[in-house]
């Protein structure tokens, strides 16, 4: 970080002075001063007063007996003078690393100069490692205008990016998570741990800590030599425990735990916990290094003690496994029970780890066998969002499994681990169908995933629906209720998006008893299908309560992928309801979780874009929409590509880029026509497209979009879509000069949207009304629109209201532009006649744009066409036409 900043600032500096202190040299006086000024001493020496020159040369060269006590003032003034002399020739940058190890004499001299430089062009760039109150102490010693930037530990995503940048790209997410935890976010520690893993051909087994390289062990364990042997054994037991306490250490046979942990705390190995019984290491790496340093027999002894001392059955089982070598059916059974308990507690990641330990301790001929435990672990890993681990386990099982049911379970994991990139696992489906044979239960599972492939890869809703219906039929024949319900849920969601008349009946069929608790709360299950139906049917309060209950349940179960999607669904519900601030918070949290887990990134970025455009930063909205579209195209995901482009079009529209919005949303229209999506409530982009078309001077195409969409919305009874279409059609009418008709439609649309609970759309209608009324007789205030946008916390829209109000304050009356009865204008298109008429009345381009709800660029382009068709060159010629008409 310091090097990057120094490079940025150094470009503008004539002189760059550097020093980098070390702990071992911190006792040597004036060492940092010598590093800083040693190479420029000849340049400044002759310009210093004699006393200052003598004192500085003595300090830098070591000749003489210069000390702060004897030559204090001369030395202080010499350093200040030296910096001023260098600055007189050009800006100076002083870079000091590891300020905490700077020798005290140099630190005192630099501090004296820094506080007195004033406007002298000298910048000091310093880095210091601080703990506790030291941060404040360094700030108090700094000049008043010091800019302090605290560098916090790296987040998990940042550690992942750092490892990728350094070439450690094949590490599973679960391993990266462990590197982050063990390193405490320290980049040096993280890289060293990544390097050790990269050089180790055998990855750590489940339950084992990461291998700690010798370089880090030496760095963090230098103080261990000062511990007694018994205290070290006590700390080893603490490092082997998941949540060590003094009580646990006592139960594990460490009788003098209080005194031994106090000794470790005094050496800085343990953090003191005044309010609690926990024994916590000062840094996670200390625990990992201590464990890695211990001989294997001592580790097993520590785990054996904890296997009876721990009160939690999961911890007892885990420690029993770590204390046992070889296979042991009893240990394997205990681990399988612990995995089931962890699963019930909503800790699938722990369950996966325990399942792998159970497989390791199960004899090859055991019942259940090792692969059964591995498959359970893979399924738990999928639930926990650890898709890399799940895929690796499944691939391992497939190398030797011969039982068709086991192979199909493993193929399922491989397919689910692919996420939206189902095109990457195309080769799996023929193999899975061959393994399924003629077993309806196994075939149902394969055809369920084939339905998803038809939708995502091929973009064929009709084929996907048929595959899902076939899977449901096979599952019912085979008595597999879970797969039947998942297939029916998928079928109902597809029918809903298609506007298929069977959608309500399929949803009812999917909701019949008996239900499956897992399917009920799965993001592709019955509850999610019902939520989508409620949202598209304008039942926002019921949709909110449904998704809130589902989110609560998947969090309890630890279903990470479902949590990502349900958090996004809740954000969408709040956005539709006009709670933009709440939606933005939820969308950002969903995106953070998606980035952290690597799941649902495109979908979360898409929704976050919509939320940013409505309540946050429009620039961020554009970037997120482009990211979502890029991911969808990379994955070959046709379904989410249209959603991402719709978000991009919306963000462009809010940003004022009507032409860009038209381009993006026209592509959405083409994609959805190809996909067979007819329900306009799916993406709700049609109103934006129509309004953007009006702004670019294409009211005819806008009316066509409205007419086609209205037909589907009427058939499906989509009230909110119809109201938004009426709002868009009002703008078309206004652009064509029918202001009274536009006002009537806008007023009706606003009232209907308010009753349906679509707060943001209601505010947009109020904004359009205010713009249409500007300069006309009657109320002209933007206060109502501002109030509604403020209630929604729709900041980007609120800024637009402020700009429109400021522009409209001095506008003349907006009268319906009548086409002049001149034969010369007869050949113009409707929009061209409207623009020409307003020019004849003396309106500016900006006023015309506001009155006709089009952009200034569209006005300019339209005028260019008018000039060409009429054979004239400027606005003046149009005004002359008007004058000629009046003269007659």
Automatic annotation (TrEMBL):
CDD domains recorded: LuxR_C_like (cd06170)
One Pfam family of this chain: GerE
Keywords tagged on the record: ATP-binding, DNA-binding, Nucleotide-binding
InterPro entries: AAA_16 (IPR041664), Sig_transdc_resp-reg_C-effctor (IPR016032), TPR-like_helical_dom_sf (IPR011990), Tscrpt_reg_LuxR_C (IPR000792), WH-like_DNA-bd_sf (IPR036388)
Transmembrane region(s): none
Domain spans labelled HTH luxR-type: 821-886
UniProt GO molecular function: DNA binding
Gene3D superfamilies: Tetratricopeptide repeat domain, Winged helix-like DNA-binding domain superfamily/Winged helix DNA-binding domain
Protein name: DNA-binding CsgD family transcriptional regulator/tetratricopeptide (TPR) repeat protein
Organism: Streptomyces achromogenes
């Amino acid at each position: 970080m310091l090097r990057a900043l120094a490079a940025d600032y150094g470009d503008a500096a004539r002189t760059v002075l550097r020093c980098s202190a070390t702990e071992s040299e911190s006792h040597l006086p004036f060492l940092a001063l010598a590093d800083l000024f040693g190479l420029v001493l000849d340049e400044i020496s002759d310009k210093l007063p004699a006393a200052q020159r003598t004192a500085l040369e003595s300090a830098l060269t070591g000749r003489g007996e210069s000390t702060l006590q004897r030559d204090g003032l001369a030395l202080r003034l010499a350093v200040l003078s030296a910096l001023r002399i260098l600055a007189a020739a050009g800006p100076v940058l002083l870079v000091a690393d590891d300020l905490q190890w700077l020798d005290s004499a140099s630190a005192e001299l630099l501090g004296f100069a820094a506080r007195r430089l004033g406007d002298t062009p000298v910048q000091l760039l310093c880095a210091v490692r601080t703990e506790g109150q030291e941060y404040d102490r360094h700030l108090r010693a700094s000049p008043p205008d010091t800019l302090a930037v605290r560098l916090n530990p790296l987040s998990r995503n940042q550690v992942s990016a750092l490892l990728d940048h350094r070439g450690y790209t094949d590490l599973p997410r679960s391993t990266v998570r462990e590197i982050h935890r063990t390193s405490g976010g320290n980049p040096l520690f993280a890289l060293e741990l990544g390097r050790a893993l990269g050089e180790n051909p055998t990855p750590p087994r489940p339950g084992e800590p990461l291998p700690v390289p010798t370089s880090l062990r030496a760095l963090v364990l230098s103080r261990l030599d000062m511990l007694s042997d018994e205290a070290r054994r006590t700390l080893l037991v603490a490092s082997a425990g998941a949540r060590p306490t003094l009580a646990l250490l006592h139960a594990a046979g460490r009788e003098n735990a209080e005194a031994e942990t106090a000794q470790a705390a005094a050496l800085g190995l343990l953090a003191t916990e005044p309010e609690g019984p926990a024994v916590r290491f000062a840094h996670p790496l200390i625990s990992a290094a201590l464990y890695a340093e211990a001989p294997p027999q001592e580790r097993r002894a520590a785990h054996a003690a904890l296997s009876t001392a721990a009160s939690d059955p999961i911890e007892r089982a885990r420690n029993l496994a770590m204390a046992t070598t070889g296979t042991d059916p009893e240990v394997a059974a205990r681990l399988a029970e612990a995995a089931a308990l962890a699963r019930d507690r909503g800790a699938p990641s722990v369950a996966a780890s325990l399942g792998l330990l159970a497989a390791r301790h199960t004899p090859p001929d055991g019942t259940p066998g090792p692969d059964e435990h591995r498959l359970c672990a893979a399924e738990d890993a999928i639930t926990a969002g650890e898709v890399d681990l799940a895929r690796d386990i499944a691939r391992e099982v497939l190398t030797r499994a011969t039982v068709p049911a086991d192979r199909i379970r493993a193929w399922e994991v491989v397919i689910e681990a692919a996420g939206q990139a189902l095109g990457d696992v195309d080769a799996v489906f023929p193999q899975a169908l061959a393994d399924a044979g003629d077993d309806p239960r196994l075939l149902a599972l394969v055809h369920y995933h084939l339905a998803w492939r038809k939708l995502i890869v091929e973009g064929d809703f009709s084929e996907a629906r048929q595959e899902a219906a076939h899977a449901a039929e096979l599952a019912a024949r085979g008595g597999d209720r879970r797969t039947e319900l998942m297939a029916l849920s998928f079928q109902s969601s597809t029918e809903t998006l298609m506007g298929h008349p069977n959608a309500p009946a399929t949803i009812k069929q999917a909701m019949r008893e008996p239900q499956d608790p897992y399917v009920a709360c799965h993001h592709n299950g019955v509850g999610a299908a019902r939520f989508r139906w409620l949202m598209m049917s304008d039942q926002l309060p019921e949709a909110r309560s449904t998704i809130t209950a589902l989110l609560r349940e998947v969090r309890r179960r630890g279903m990470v992928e479902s949590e990502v999607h349900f958090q996004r669904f809740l954000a969408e519900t709040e956005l539709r309801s006009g709670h933009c601030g709440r939606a933005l918070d939820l969308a950002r949290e969903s995106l953070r979780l998606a980035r952290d887990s690597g799941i649902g990134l495109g979908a979360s970025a898409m929704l976050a874009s919509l939320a940013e455009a409505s309540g946050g930063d429009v620039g961020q909205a554009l970037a997120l929409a482009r990211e979502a579209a890029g991911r969808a195209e990379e994955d070959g995901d046709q379904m989410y590509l249209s959603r991402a482009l719709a978000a991009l079009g919306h963000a462009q529209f809010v940003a004022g880029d009507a032409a860009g919005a038209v381009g993006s949303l026209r592509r959405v229209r083409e994609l959805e026509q190809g996909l067979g999506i007819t329900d306009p409530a799916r993406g709700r982009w049609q109103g934006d497209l129509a309004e953007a078309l009006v702004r670019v001077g294409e009211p005819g195409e806008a009316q066509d979009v409205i007419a086609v969409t209205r037909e589907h919305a009427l058939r499906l009874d989509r009230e909110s879509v119809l109201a938004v279409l009426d709002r868009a059609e009002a703008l078309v009418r206004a652009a064509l000069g029918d202001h009274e008709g536009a006002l009537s439609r806008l007023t009706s649309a606003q009232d209907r949207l308010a009753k349906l609970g679509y707060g943001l759309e209601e505010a947009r209608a109020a904004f359009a009304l205010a713009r249409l009324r500007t300069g006309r007789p009657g109320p002209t205030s933007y206060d109502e629109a501002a109030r509604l946008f403020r209630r929604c916390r729709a900041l980007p829209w609120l800024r637009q209201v402020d700009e429109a109000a400021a522009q409209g304050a001095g506008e003349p009356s907006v009268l319906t532009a009548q086409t002049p009865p001149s034969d010369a204008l007869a050949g113009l298109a409707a929009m061209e006649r409207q623009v020409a008429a307003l020019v004849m009345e003396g309106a500016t381009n900006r006023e015309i744009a506001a009155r006709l709800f089009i952009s200034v660029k569209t006005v300019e382009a339209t005028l260019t066409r008018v000039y060409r068709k009429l054979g004239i060159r400027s606005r003046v010629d149009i005004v002359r036409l008007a004058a000629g008409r009046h003269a007659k």
